[in-house]
Known about the structure:
Elements: E1 3-8, H1 16-30, E2 34-39, H2 54-57, H3 70-74, E3 78-84, H4 92-100, E4 113-119, H5 129-139, E5 146-153, H6 167-176
Helix pairs in contact: 1-6
Amino acid sequence: MKKVFIVSSSPRKGGNSDFLADRFIEGAKSAGNEVLKVRTDETGLKFCTGCMYCQTSGKCVLYDGMNEIYSAVRDSDVLVFVTPVYYYSVSGQLKTFLDRLNPLFSQDNRFKDVYLIATAADTDKRAVDGAVKAVEGWVECFDGVRLKKVLRGTGLEAKGDAKNSAYGDEAFEMGKNI
Length: 178
């Protein structure tokens, strides 16, 4: 059994990204894994101030729900970042969330595998390249951590499009095979 932490950064609850996050969770749970899902819009997420207090304390000076999340992220085997693609990169919510994980930089973290689920209205798979690059930049800051797999959910323009695509099955299988 693996501990899986999944963050959905879509501001649209029940949208395409959120749907694929839930399908990943179904797959992971079907394989006997423990899963915790957090939605960025439910954390009261604030922007990092760059004060670096977290590097000596292991926690953040901001009070917005992130301090309660750090131990769950640190103690997970697998991290899953889920984002809609805006202007060919991750959502602002995911970028802010990644920035706010800075207290983990100096910690002994359990996670080694990172997965990315990104959805885009654009039909070209390359539309997700910027999101991949953004997550790879975060991953590179942690020794021994790798971006293991990416689901490129392209051509998903309207809310609910993912439900009528093969991406739901792909997300399920991805979760099942972590």
